[in-house]
Specification:
transmembrane helix, 650 residues, Rossmann fold, alpha/beta, seven-stranded mixed β-sheet, nine-stranded mixed β-sheet, Polysaccharide_Synthase-Rel, single chain
Length: 650
C-alpha cells in the first residue's frame, strides 16, 4: 500500500476516534458534560491511546473496500485496548472522569462501531460504484453449487465495477436448503430439481440467460442430468472460475484500473467433465512402495497414456525415470514438462524405436530398469489397416523386444498397455495387440510357475481398456476441430458405440493393477496364475452420435440445425461395438473397485515367440499375405471387417 494511502487511513481513523469520545460520554452520562479545559487533554489522550493500540495491529494498512471478518477483528481489539488505555490515563491523572463505571465498555463499543462501520460503508460504496459505460446489461444467471462456492461467486460479482452477470437464484446440493438465502439471493431448489426450477422460471418469464456451475466437483451423471434440463429450455451452461480465482483475498487488485478491468471469465463445460466418473479409491501407499526408489522405463512416453504414466510415476519418487519414444517433439514436450513439475527426479529422454532389438538391448543393459511400462504402439485402426506390416512390427514384435530385453536384464515387472480392440479383433491393430497380449501372458505364467521351483522371473502385467478421452487421433479432438470450422461433424455409423475413460482415471487404475500384479499379495486374484489380464471397468458404452450432439450443445449450438452431423460409413477394420471380454473370458471381479480380471486362452511363450519372429520376418520382407496368414493362425478369432482392403498387397 502506498505511504500516502496509509497516512490517509490513519487520519480518517483518528477523526473517528475523536468523534467516539463525546459520543461515548453522552451515552455514559446523559446531561453531564466535562469542563471545557478537560477536552484539550481528553481528546489528546484519546488519540494517543488509539494510535498506541492501532499501529501495532496495522489498522492503517487495511483495504477498506475489501474489508471482511478477519479485518474487523483487529478493529475490535484496537478499540478495546484504546478504551482501556484512555481510562487508565484518566485514573492516573486524577481529574474529571465520567461517573458511570461502564464508560470504558461504552467507549470501546462506540469506537469499534465507528471504525468498523466506516470500513463497511467503504466496501459497499466500492462494490456499488458506477462502472465504465456499457451498452450491455447484466445477464440473469442461475447458479448451481454449494453455499461456499455460491458465496464466492456472488462476492466476486459484487466486487466488480460493471458486473456482466446478475444471479437470480441458486441450485443447492440438497433439497432442504430450499428457501434460504445467500447474500440476498434465494435458493430455489436442489441441483436435481433443475428441470422443475427452470419450468417455474419460464412460466414467470424469468428464464435465465445462463446456468453457471459454481461447484468444480459437479461432473459425471449429475452434470449430464443438469445439462439435459438446461437443453430442454435452450439455456447454455458455463463453468465458473475455480474458487481460488474467485477469492478476493487471493488476488486483490492494486489499483482502480485493475479493479475495473477484472472480469469473471466463464468457460464452456468440456466433454471430459461430462463423462468423468467419481474417483475410485486407489492404493496410493502400494503405488509408492512399487515405484519409490526404483529405476523406471516408460515406452511411448510422448503419447497420451505414456505421458500421463510419466507424470504420475514422477510424482511417486522413482530413483530414475527413462522416457522412450520415437517422436522427437513429443518426447521433448514431456521431458520439458517434468523438468518443471518434478525437477528433483532423475530423467533421461531416449529417442528409440521399440522394434530395434540391438538398440533396446544395449539400453536395457545400461539402465537396468526395475519396472517397465510399455505404452508404445500404433493405435489408429485405419492407419494400421493402410500399413498393416508396420502395425505388426511395432505392436507385436516391439512388445516382444521390450519384454525380452527387460527380462534379460533383471527387470522386476513389465506392464503392458493393451486395448479393447484386441477382443474378437476385426483390425490388424487389434489382432497385433492380442498377439502381444498372448506373449506377455505366457511370460507371466512362466514366471509364476518358476516361483514354485525357486527360479522366479519377470512378472508381465497386462492391462486392457477402451478409448481414452482426448487422446491423439481420437474422436473428441476430431469433433473439436470440426466444430471450430463450423461443421459438419462426421460419424461413421448411427449405431457405433465406444467405451470412454479419462486418461487420469485410466492411468491411476493401470498403476493399481501394477501393484497387484507385480507383488505377491494375499488378495491377488487367483486368475493371474493362469495368465489373467486386468480389464478396467469402463462403465457403459457411449453412442458416438450422442457424443457428437452433446459436444455441439456444449458449444452453445443446436445439432442438425446449426451444425450438421454427417454419417460417412465404417472405415477399414472398424466394428460397431467394441468388447472388453472374449466370449470364453469370463470376467471376474477383484477386491479393487474399477478393476476386473479375465483369463483368456494362453499358449507356450516359446511357441508364441517363434510365431512372432516368423510374422516379423514376413513383414520385413514385405509379404503382407504371409504375415496376415500367420497372424490369423495365432489369433483364430481375428476376422477382417468386410470393408478392409487387403488385396493388392504382396
Amino acid at each position: 500500500m502506498a505511504p500516502q494511502r496509509i497516512l490517509l487511513n490513519l487520519a480518517l481513523d483518528l477523526v473517528l476516534a475523536a468523534l467516539a469520545l463525546p459520543a461515548a460520554l453522552a451515552l455514559a452520562a446523559p446531561g453531564i458534560w466535562p469542563p471545557p479545559l478537560w477536552w484539550v487533554g481528553g481528546l489528546s489522550g484519546a488519540l494517543l491511546a488509539f494510535a498506541a493500540a492501532a499501529l501495532p495491529l496495522r489498522l492503517p494498512r487495511q483495504y477498506w473496500r475489501y474489508v471482511g471478518l478477519p479485518d474487523l477483528l483487529p478493529v475490535a481489539a484496537a478499540s478495546v485496548v484504546a478504551a482501556g488505555l484512555f481510562w487508565a490515563g484518566l485514573m492516573i491523572a486524577g481529574g474529571w472522569r465520567p461517573p458511570n463505571p461502564a464508560f470504558p465498555l461504552l467507549h470501546a463499543g462506540v469506537l469499534a462501531a465507528l471504525l468498523g462501520g466506516a470500513r463497511l460503508v467503504g466496501r459497499l460504496q466500492s462494490a456499488h460504484r458506477a462502472g465504465p459505460a456499457s451498452d450491455v446489461p447484466a445477464q440473469p444467471v442461475l447458479l448451481a453449487g454449494g453455499a461456499d462456492a455460491a458465496d464466492l461467486f456472488i462476492r466476486a460479482l459484487i466486487a466488480q465495477r460493471a458486473p456482466g452477470y446478475r444471479v437470480e437464484g441458486i441450485l443447492a446440493p440438497r433439497a432442504r436448503q430450499r428457501g434460504r438465502r445467500i447474500l440476498g439471493t434465494p435458493i430455489l431448489g436442489a441441483v436435481e430439481d433443475a428441470g422443475a426450477v427452470l419450468d417455474a422460471l419460464r412460466a414467470e418469464g424469468r428464464l435465465p440467460a445462463l446456468l453457471v456451475l459454481a461447484d468444480p466437483a459437479l461432473s459425471g451423471a449429475a452434470l449430464e442430468a443438469l445439462l439435459d434440463a438446461a437443453d430442454r429450455h435452450g439455456v447454455p451452461v458455463r463453468r465458473a472460475p475455480r474458487p481460488t480465482a474467485l477469492d478476493p483475498a487471493a488476488a486483490r487488485p492494486q489499483s482502480t484500473a485493475q479493479a475495473a478491468a477484472r472480469r469473471l471469465e466463464l468457460r464452456p463445460v468440456s466433454i471430459e467433465e461430462l463423462l468423468d466418473r467419481p474417483q475410485v479409491p486407489l492404493d496410493r501407499e502400494g503405488m509408492a512402495r512399487l515405484i519409490q526408489g526404483r529405476r523406471v522405463l516408460v515406452t511411448g512416453a510422448g503419447g497420451t497414456i505414456g505421458s500421463e504414466l510419466a507424470r504420475q510415476i514422477a510424482a511417486l519418487g522413482p530413483a530414475s525415470l527413462t522416457l522412450l519414444d520415437h517422436g522427437e517433439f513429443a518426447l521433448y514436450e514431456i521431458d520439458l514438462e517434468l523438468s518443471e513439475t518434478h525437477p528433483g527426479v532423475v530423467r533421461r529422454p531416449v529417442l528409440a524405436d521399440v522394434r530395434d532389438e540391438a538398440r533396446l538391448g544395449r539400453l536395457m543393459q545400461e539402465i537396468r530398469p526395475d519396472l517397465v511400462f510399455h505404452a508404445a504402439a500404433l493405435k489408429h485402426v485405419p492407419m494400421v489397416e493402410n500399413d498393416p506390416l508396420e502395425g505388426l512390427l511395432t505392436n507385436a514384435l516391439g512388445t516382444r523386444v521390450i519384454a525380452d530385453a527387460a527380462r534379460a536384464n533383471g527387470c522386476r515387472a513389465m506392464v503392458f498397455i493393451s486395448t479393447d480392440k484386441a477382443v474378437n479383433p476385426t483390425s490388424v491393430m487389434g489382432a497385433s495387440k492380442r498377439l502381444a497380449e498372448m506373449y506377455c501372458q505366457a511370460l507371466d505364467m512362466q514366471a509364476r510357475q518358476g516361483m514354485s521351483n525357486g527360479s522366479g522371473g519377470m512378472r508381465c502385467v497386462t492391462v486392457r481398456f477402451g478409448n481414452v478421452l482426448g487422446s491423439t487421433g481420437s474422436v473428441v479432438p476430431l469433433f473439436r476441430r470440426q466444430l471450430e470450422r463450423g461443421g459438419p461433424l462426421t460419424v461413421t455409423h448411427p449405431d457405433m458405440r465406444r467405451y470412454f475413460m479419462t486418461v487420469r482415471e485410466a492411468v491411476g487404475l493401470v498403476l493399481q493393477a501394477s501393484v497387484i500384479g507385480a507383488e505377491d499379495r494375499a488378495d491377488q486374484p487367483p486368475e493371474l496364475k493362469d495368465g489373467g489380464i486386468f480389464v478396467l471397468d469402463m462403465g457403459k458404452p457411449v453412442k458416438i452420435v450422442d457424443l457428437a450432439r452433446r459436444m455441439i450443445r456444449l458449444a452453445g449450438l443446436q445439432p442438425d440445425e446449426e451444425v450438421e452431423i454427417r454419417f460417412t460409413g465404417l472405415r477399414p477394420g472398424e466394428k460397431l461395438f467394441e468388447e472388453l471380454f472374449h466370449g470364453k473370458e469370463a470376467p471376474s471381479p477383484t477386491e479393487f473397485p474399477g478393476l476386473l480380471v479375465a483369463t483368456p486362452r494362453t499358449a507356450d511363450a516359446a511357441l508364441v515367440g517363434r510365431a512372432i519372429d516368423e510374422i516379423a520376418a514376413a513383414a520385413r520382407g514385405g509379404q503382407a499375405r504371409l504375415a496376415l496368414a500367420g497372424l490369423g493362425r495365432l489369433v483364430p478369432e481375428f476376422e477382417h471387417a468386410p470393408n478392409t482392403p487387403v488385396a493388392g498387397r504382396a
